[in-house]
Amino acid sequence: MSLATHTPGVARYIAAAEAAAQRRAADLARMRACRFDTIAVHGLYTMQEALDFNQGSIIEPIYMATSQAYRDSDEMEAALAYAVPTWCYSRIANPSLYYFENVLALLEGYQLTVETSCCATASGMAAIDAATEPFLARDPRRPDRPFNFVSTCQVYGGTFQLFAARKMREKGVECRWIRNSADLGEWEERIDDNTRFLYGELPSNPGQAFFDLAAVAGLAHRRGIPLIIDNTVATPALLRPLSFGADVVVQSVTKTLTSSGFGIAGAVIARKNLTCHYAPEDLRADFAMYLKTLPNRDHGPNLSPMNAVLSINDMRTLRSKVDLFSRNTMQVARFLEQHPRVERVDYLGLASHPLHELASRYLFLVDAEHDAQYGQPVNRYGHLMSFRVAGGVEATRRVFDALRRIWRATDLGRVKSVATIPAISTHQQQGEEGRALADIPGNLIRLCVGGEHPDDVIADLDQALDAVDGRSTRVAPSAWSIGGASRALGDGDA
Ligand SMILES: Cc1ncc(COP(=O)(O)O)c(C=O)c1O
Q1: Hey, which of 153, 161, 205, 314 would you mutate to test ligand 1's pocket, going by the most ligand atoms within 8 Å of its Cβ?
Q2: What is 318-469's CATH number?
Q3: pTM higher than 0.90, yes or no?
Q4: Which fold has domain 94-315?
């Protein structure tokens, strides 16, 4: 915006903001030149920033405030025109979110020549909705023209419901499912002139589906449409989809990015100048900023500052955690693979997995070649795997109920190992037909291996698999908690 169109008071703020923008660009350039771990530890929160604006605090501030005060009406006017840096109101932006967004933009854009930006959301589902909805706007020139989007059917159950129920059933937008995402011919068949975007989850939860990302990005771009990838399971420590041509990445930050399990968070990270032949210029130029300042301002799915800083803290050690979890998962998968009571194990790291070779072209521990421990690129396959129990659904439930150390919860990406039966939990609501489509049978247990020693996880699985013979494994509730609280002991309890 030209200074001439503003009053002198407003123009003064805009001129000062230009100097600040240069300082930010220099900070950004310095950080982009650092290695992944350094970016994860610091992001854009510098010592200078702490000394100048945050009492010297070495940890990013949590601004639990609804809104920002302005020095005078000139600053307010400049801010509300988005002509100077501002956070304004926490439904739109917030300083704690600023640090969160920048670290994720840098990590997903690591060593990429194009610029990236990020918009924080209150959850992974809010990120998926925010990332897809703008591409499903009616075309004002042809308002009656139907349109569709193409997605892998092997996606998280919430995503399946969002696409099948919310978008398809309630809004009449056609979602065309890809059954076998590794088959490029199937993608090609589903795309037509009315396709708005392609969507995939890599690797998929829980089935470990995987596809040739660069080839699918090529398909999308030949049609002038964007590719959106859910990178929750791999995280940027193993895969950076934008570097293979994807336009937008969504993250359930709730999961592996944070791993401590303190709260729900999400993010949309996009390359600037993304491919989309039908979208307005401002959407294409900086999609994440477009979301932040327009649709998300109006829909309001913003992240709490507290969760932003808790997430920042967790993400500092992302690479080493993902390395540890991946190595542990590999050991557990090998144990399960040879167990007589296990019918099948799906883990991309196993040489026996049909997609192992394809996944091995994509999933590398970032910076392993600069790590004294490895000194060369190493494949890592993440912490999510699934296995099918021999003997059917009842036997599967007995094994599941017998777990003692592995937590039964509909969760993943934790530092604690967690298991679930997707058919009765995360993927229950998509129904028998939807589960058959995505190959999620009732005897499949999804297991996310955490940071415990793998021997102890294996021991727990080993004793639980013994429960297939039907012996009872229920543990009676105890009368006292280890912290000292007793249950009420009525007459009947004695
Ligand atoms: C792959 C994947 N994407 C998205 C989500 C949704 O994230 P959230 O629970 O943060 O909304 C999940 C949740 O399990 C997931 O596993």
Answers
A1: 205
A2: 3.90.1150.10
A3: yes
A4: Aspartate Aminotransferase; domain 2 (3.40.640)
